[in-house]
C-alpha cells in the first residue's frame, strides 16, 4: 500500500547545476533527424515479436512515411534478426537515402556478428551501448567507473577495426552511455570523450552520441538541462550529433524530447505511437505533428494516418488508443454541446475567410491534413447540444437549419439520446428528423401537383393534395406563393398557420443542385411549428415546407 510519507522510500531527483540555462528561451524551428526504433525497442516490447513478414511490412511503412534512419534490429540476438537484416541488404530493399541502423552490446563476438549481418550494405550505422549509471555499475555489473569506461573504449576500437574489414560500406557509428539520464553528467561526458578519442569524428563524419532517458525519473526540464550541459561541455560539438532517446515512465517522453531539442539536440529516436518497453518510447508521430501545427514541416508524411495506424496495429498486435494524440478515432470528435457549437462556428468562419490559416476551436490541426474527414468531428449523445445536431445534418444531408429550428430539433435528439443511453449516429438523427417534421410515414397532406398564377402581389395557388386516402383540390389567394398556400390550407382544410420566418438555401454546389426551404409558423394559440421541404425547384420546396408544418399540426390533432 502507499506510504503516508513516501520520502522514507523515494528520493527527489537532483537538480542540474546549469547557470544561465538557455533552452527555456529557445524555439524549435526545424525538424531533427528522425530514427525509428520500432523494429528494435518496439519489437522487443511486444508479447509476440514481429516475424519477418511483419518486420518487412513495418520497414516499408517507415520508408513510405519518410524516416531516413531505421534501427532494423539486433542481429546478434538470434537467427531471426540476423537473417532479416542480411536479407534486406541482399534483396536491395534499403533505399539509397535510408540508413539502416543495428544495435549491439559492447562485446567482441556480438559486434563481429553485427557487422557480418550488414555485409554488402552501401551504408549503415552501428550503434553500441553500455550502461554507465550508479545503479547499473554497483548492482548489475559491480564495476567501478574506470572499468565501465574501459568497456566503452574497447567497444569503440571494435567498431573501428570491424569497419576497416569492410571498406566498401560507408560506416557510421552511434554510442549510447546507456542510462544517461540517471548517471552523473561528468562520467557520461568522460565516456563519450573516450569513445570520440578512438573514433576521431569530424564535422564531415560526425559521431552520433545518443543520450537516453532509459528510465524516465525526473521532469522534462531536468532532461533538457542534462542535454544542454553536455552540449556546452563536449569538446568537439561540431563533430557529434546529439541524439535523444526518451521513455515515457512519467508520461512526459514527448515533452522531454521537445525540451531536449530546445536544449540543442539534433536527432530524436522513438517509435510510431510510442510503443516500447514498459510505458513506451517517445512517440515520433506526436512530436512530428506537434511541429506541423507550429508551421514546421517535420519531414515525415502522415497524410494517411489511418493507413499508418492499420499497419502498426497489425504488426504490433496492439491497438492505438482512441484518445491517442492526432491518431485516435476520437481525438477530433466533440460530444459536448458547447464544444460542438464552437467547432461549428469555427468551420463557418474558416469557410468565410480568404486565407488558409487554420483557426478552429478545439481542433489544433485540420483533420483533412491527416486524411480524415469532418463527418466524425461532431458526434451526438446525451451531452450534445443544438450545434452538434445541426452539424451532423449539415454534413450528412447538406441541411443548414435555422437557429430556432436547431433548438427545436435538439430537444427531440436529447430525448432520444437519454432514452437510448448511447451515441446517436447520422441514421438515428435523420430518422428522428424525418419523423418529427413529418417527412416520412403517414402524411395527412401530401403534395401531388400545383399551379401558381396571378399578378405580382396577387397570387393564386391551385394544388392537388393527397388527403385521407384520396385526392383533394385546394386553392388560395395571397400576395405570394407561401401566403396563397396558407390561405388554401386555412379555407379548404381548416389548418390555420402564419409564417413568422422563412429561409432557404441550395444543397451542394454547381448547376444541378437541390434546394431546402424552412418555415417557422405560429398557430392561433401561439405555438411554434416548424416545417421543411426539399426539391430541385425552390418554389416547390417552399410549398413542401408549409405542408410539413401543416402535417405536424394535423398530427397534434390526432
UniProtKB/TrEMBL annotation:
Signal peptide: none
Domain Pyruvate carboxyltransferase: residue ranges: 32-306
Pfam families: HMGL-like (PF00682), IPMS_D2 (PF22615), LeuA_dimer (PF08502)
Catalytic activity: 3-methyl-2-oxobutanoate + acetyl-CoA + H2O = (2S)-2-isopropylmalate + CoA + H(+)
Binding site for Mg(2+): 41, 245, 247, 281
Region annotated Regulatory domain, chain positions: 440-558
EC number: 2.3.3.13
UniProt record, GO biological process: L-leucine biosynthetic process
Entry GO MF terms: 2-isopropylmalate synthase activity; acetyl-CoA C-acetyltransferase activity; magnesium ion binding
GO cellular component: cytoplasm
Keywords: Amino-acid biosynthesis, Branched-chain amino acid biosynthesis, Cytoplasm, Leucine biosynthesis, Magnesium, Metal-binding, Transferase
SUPFAM superfamilies: 2-isopropylmalate synthase LeuA, allosteric (dimerisation) domain, Aldolase, post-HMGL domain-like
Membership in a protein family: Belongs to the alpha-IPM synthase/homocitrate synthase family. LeuA type 2 subfamily.
Quaternary structure note: Homodimer.
Protein's UniProt name: 2-isopropylmalate synthase
Organism whose genome encodes this protein: Sphingobium chungbukense
Amino acid at each position: 500500500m502507499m506510504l503516508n510519507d513516501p520520502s522514507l522510500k523515494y528520493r527527489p531527483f537532483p537538480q542540474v547545476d546549469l547557470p544561465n540555462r538557455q533552452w527555456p528561451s529557445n524555439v524549435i524551428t526545424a525538424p531533427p533527424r528522425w530514427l525509428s526504433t520500432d523494429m528494435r525497442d518496439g519489437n522487443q516490447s511486444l508479447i509476440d515479436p514481429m516475424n519477418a513478414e511483419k518486420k518487412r511490412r513495418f520497414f516499408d511503412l517507415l520508408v513510405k512515411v519518410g524516416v531516413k534512419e531505421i534501427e532494423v534490429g539486433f542481429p546478434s540476438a538470434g537467427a531471426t534478426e540476423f537473417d532479416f537484416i542480411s536479407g534486406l541488404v541482399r534483396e536491395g530493399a534499403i533505399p539509397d537515402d535510408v540508413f539502416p541502423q543495428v544495435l549491439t552490446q559492447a562485446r567482441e563476438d556480438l559486434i563481429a556478428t553485427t557487422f557480418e549481418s550488414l555485409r554488402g550494405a552501401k551504408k549503415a550505422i552501428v550503434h553500441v551501448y553500455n550502461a554507465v549509471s550508479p545503479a547499473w555499475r554497483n548492482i548489475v555489473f559491480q564495476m567501478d567507473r574506470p572499468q565501465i569506461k574501459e568497456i566503452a573504449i574497447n567497444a569503440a576500437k571494435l567498431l573501428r577495426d570491424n569497419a576497416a574489414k569492410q571498406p566498401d560500406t560507408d560506416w557510421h557509428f552511434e554510442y549510447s552511455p546507456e542510462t544517461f539520464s540517471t548517471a552523473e553528467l561528468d562520467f557520461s561526458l568522460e565516456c563519450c570523450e573516450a569513445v570520440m578519442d578512438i573514433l576521431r569524428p569530424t564535422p564531415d563524419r560526425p559521431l552520433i552520441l545518443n543520450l537516453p532517458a532509459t528510465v524516465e525519473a525526473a521532469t522534462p526540464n531536468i532532461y533538457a538541462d542534462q542535454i544542454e550541459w553536455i552540449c556546452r561541455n563536449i569538446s568537439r560539438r561540431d563533430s557529434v550529433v546529439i541524439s535523444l532517446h526518451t521513455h515515457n515512465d512519467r508520461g512526459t517522453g514527448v515533452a522531454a524530447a521537445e525540451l531536449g531539442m530546445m536544449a540543442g539536440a539534433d536527432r530524436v529516436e522513438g517509435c510510431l505511437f510510442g510503443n516500447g518497453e514498459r510505458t513506451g518510447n517517445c512517440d515520433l508521430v506526436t512530436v512530428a505533428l506537434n511541429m506541423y501545427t507550429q508551421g514546421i514541416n517535420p519531414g515525415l508524411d502522415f497524410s494517411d494516418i489511418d493507413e499508418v495506424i492499420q499497419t502498426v496495429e497489425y504488426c504490433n498486435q496492439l491497438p492505438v488508443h482512441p484518445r491517442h494524440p492526432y491518431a485516435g478515432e476520437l481525438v477530433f470528435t466533440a460530444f459536448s454541446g458547447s464544444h460542438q457549437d464552437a467547432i461549428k462556428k469555427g468551420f463557418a468562419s474558416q469557410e468565410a475567410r480568404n486565407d488558409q490559416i487554420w483557426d478552429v476551436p478545439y481542433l489544433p490541426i485540420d483533420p483533412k491534413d491527416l486524411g480524415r474527414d469532418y463527418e466524425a468531428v461532431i458526434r451526438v449523445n446525451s451531452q450534445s447540444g443544438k450545434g452538434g445536431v445541426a452539424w451532423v445534418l449539415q454534413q450528412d444531408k447538406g441541411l443548414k437549419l435555422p437557429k430556432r429550428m436547431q433548438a427545436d430539433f435538439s430537444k427531440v435528439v436529447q430525448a432520444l439520446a437519454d432514452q437510448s443511453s448511447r451515441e446517436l449516429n447520422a441514421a438515428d438523427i435523420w430518422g428522428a428528423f424525418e419523423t418529427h417534421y413529418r417527412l416520412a410515414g403517414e402524411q395527412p397532406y401530401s403534395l401531388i401537383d400545383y399551379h401558381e398564377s396571378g399578378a405580382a402581389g396577387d397570387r393564386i395557388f391551385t394544388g392537388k393534395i393527397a388527403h385521407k386516402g384520396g385526392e383533394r383540390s385546394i386553392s388560395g389567394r395571397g400576395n405570394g406563393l407561401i401566403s396563397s398556400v396558407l390561405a388554401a390550407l386555412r379555407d379548404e382544410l381548416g389548418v390555420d398557420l402564419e409564417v413568422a420566418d422563412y429561409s432557404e438555401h441550395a444543397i451542394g454546389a454547381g448547376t444541378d443542385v437541390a434546394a431546402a426551404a424552412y418555415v417557422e409558423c405560429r398557430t392561433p394559440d401561439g405555438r411554434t411549428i416548424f416545417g421543411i421541404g426539399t426539391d430541385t425547384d425552390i418554389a416547390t420546396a417552399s410549398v413542401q415546407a408549409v405542408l410539413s408544418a401543416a402535417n405536424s399540426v394535423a398530427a397534434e390533432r390526432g
